[in-house]
Amino acid sequence: MGQESTTRRVIRGFGRPRGYAVAVALAVAVPLAIPGSAVAGSAGDESVRALAAGPPTPAQQWDTLRAKLAAIKGVWTDQAYSGSISNAMPNTALLGNGDVGVTSGGSTGVKTFYVSKGDFWNANPSPKPAPIGGVTITGTTAQNSDNLALGARATASSTEGSLTPDRAVNGQWGNGYEGWVSQVGKPQWITLDLGSVKTVARYVVRNDNAARPGNAAFNTKNLAFQTSADGTNWNSVDTVQNNTADVVDRSFTAVQTRYIRLDITEPTQGTTPDSTQNPRARIGQIELYARSGGGTPPPAAPFREEQNIVDGTVTTTMSLGGAPVSMKTWLAADRNVLVTSVTSTGGAPVQLQASAYAGATTPNSAYSNSAGVDGQVMWAERATASGSRWVSRGALATTVLGASAVQAPTVSGATARTVFTLPAGATVRVVTQIGGGGQNPVAPHNDAVTQVRSQTTGSLATLDTQRADWWKNYWMRSGVELGDAVLEKFYYAAQYFIGASSRAGKTAPALYGIWTTTDSPQFSGDYHLNYNAQAPFYGVYSSNRPELSLPFHEAILAYVPEAQRRAKQDLNRVKPDYISRRFPSGGVPAGVLFPVGIGPYGTTTDDQYHQQVSNSLFSASQFVSYYEYTQDTEFLRTKAYPFLSQVAQFFESYLERDPAGRYSLWSGPHEGTWGQNSSADIGLLKQVLSTLIAGSQKLGVDAGRRATWQNILDNLPAQPTTVFNGKTVYSLVSPGTMQGSDTRDIHPGDNTINLEFVQPADQLGINSDPAKLRTGIDTLDAMNSWGQENSFPKVFNQAARVGYPAQSLIDRFKQVINARIAPNLRIADTFHGIEKSGATEAVNSMLVQSDQGIITLFPVWPAGRNASFWQLRQKGAFVVSSAKENDRVSYAEVTSRAGGTLRLKNPWPAGSFTVTDASGAAVPFTTANGVISVQTAVDRTYRIVPV
Length: 947
Known about the structure:
The protein has about 950 residues and is an alpha+beta fold. Helices cover about 25% and strands about 30% of the residues. The strands form ten sheets. Strands 1-13-14-15-16-23-20-19-18 form a nine-stranded antiparallel sheet, covered by helices on one side. Strands 2-3-4-5-17-22-21 form a seven-stranded antiparallel sheet. Helix 10 packs across helix 12 and helix 11 (about 635-655) packs across helix 12 (about 680-700). Mean pLDDT is about 90; it is low at about 5-55, about 140-145 and about 295-300.
């Protein structure tokens, strides 16, 4: 990620002086009247042939797309829930509505959903997101009336705080539960007094990781199971050595005893620094039985869980309390209501327990957790640390609808729970309202309780329908048919993650989206501004979902006052020896300077610069893209133009100018490096200046500044190149100027910072000088960074933009996808998260590109492979659909959202074509230099077909 030596990215500007057509409107949901799909093979051929008769209806299109999406899902067949508790992005099933994130977890026989909220951020002493808590459904220990340990009097060698030994025999064990925890030291013991002599033939010890996944290092390693008639003299009945299991389940020849002791000689695995240096006994629950269980529980129903991207649901089949059930879990589109319907598929009623809790695995002790009951509603609330900044509070309010024999909820610590009966064949709904978040809310559980209490079977049915409709409308915004299951699986899953994590009006998703399951996310789980925070949005504009980027813009704008202060007062920290020589005051008169890491509400998380001044430039790229693809003049006037002006003001002072009037820029391309004319910085600055010049003309403002911007633009250096293995390639900085321990002009194998002027800065595209495109291709080969972790949302986009050989690009793309795809279909690595969605731009750019005001269809698509796409948005606010069969484009359909001149590279240079409107009426056009030009009207659709 950005904090590694591979940090930057680039986007191209909207307003190139060279004839870019300015015209786009704010993106809105558009019903599909979209052309169909073409794929390789016989099925694809049939699709394309059907297309020749005309575009399918929206209903037909949805039927096709729904079937495709229904087959793209995450699937799990065990209850390990690996990666559910993570300081990065989880690897289990995920739900999201842009505000609330839900992560699937649990353990054998236990179903938990961890709940986080995009605006639930700790602020003290420094910002980072945190989970609120979770909702758990499980069978009841009380149902197993033969558990002799339940309610036994428990004592122990020591106790850590409130984690007393009675917690190990209270029957309240469930996901996230901590039972008895000793003080540091070994050996430790816990003793049970059964009250009278009992027959015991089996014992079960539930270790820490069984309830709190991610804590396997704290599972008990060595113990002896001992019995006594008087509680003083002990006899070892069974010994366990070198255990690693979450649950110890042992049977032996039946004994008569009143007292039981676990003598724990090695309380942890000793595999981590904490478990080695701070060994504590951690026993979640002890169970005793009079009959041997053969060491294994009764057979459970087969487990299967699916993450369904088609409609934003998680479906689960499993056993709860020994009974088979099916579950469907979903999150309302805009109401922050989480619903799990539990349906019995067995022949007898089963007693279940539902609980809501506040907290996290390995919690931050500065956070406070509480729970309570209000009638039949359980609530749990969590507050972040107090201090000089805000305190956030998040709340869950849970109730059970449709059950029988619902018991009055009870509270233990920060968990509220209730027990209910699920009749055979019946369905109950566990309903949770999530509330709070933001700055200084007061007792949000009160409002959550009120809202969840208002829910009925009818209101939930309405919310369920609205959820399904939301996802249907989301998917109908655009689509692709590639004839390639691997590419399509990545593409649509990536679209799912960004759609689930970002919504207009909500807090922007951070490094790991809105799915936070620990109190210690890596890199503070923040907005890393030297590409990571911007990358998730690289593909949303061409995917016809530009509104998904709006929360990011708000996060940047909220930081502007602090960035202005830093430009004036903190610039010296970028590189003291250089800055102090040029700017004795320690700053520049105006402009903005961003550190690498920020949080919401104008806060700082990672107060470092790494010798870089490009964080504002990377951020500016997304303002440019939003305007270019939407032509939303109000956005330009109120958000993009003012911010870009601030960015330019900084560089007007920061740039160096030689006696001949040529400008140069010193900064770090990689973190901690230093050189002249960083490729990314130069490209991104060109994008900003081009946009400002065109924007000032569009808005009729700042006429006096245009000459300054144009002068800088005209006198900035060309993108630096060097020679590597006998070929000219794009370099990180001007050759020979790199300083520090690694002075190479390019860093093969590292991430492709030297090509971020291609994307996101958009300074080189498919219609550029062929020699420069050749240099781009040679640079990609020299770098060979296809599998580098930071490069994933960059290198494939960049390759498509420069026209890299299509089949080779697809092969390399698929190789990385296959190697890195996680069970929930995200592209996984140790450090990165939601940014991987940005590589959807590579697929879109292979199918259609807009460069220098000209739209090109299928610019980087292999010969002999059919494909189609619908409603991909291009610069100028043109929404484009097309299909290609047998190396021939079948048609182009373009809806103009802002009017202006459509310029389309002629797909049929050797043939003729017609241009008509939606009614079939002929539309005037011109052709010149292989480009079809059509003067369009706002919201009119144009169809161009060969004849």
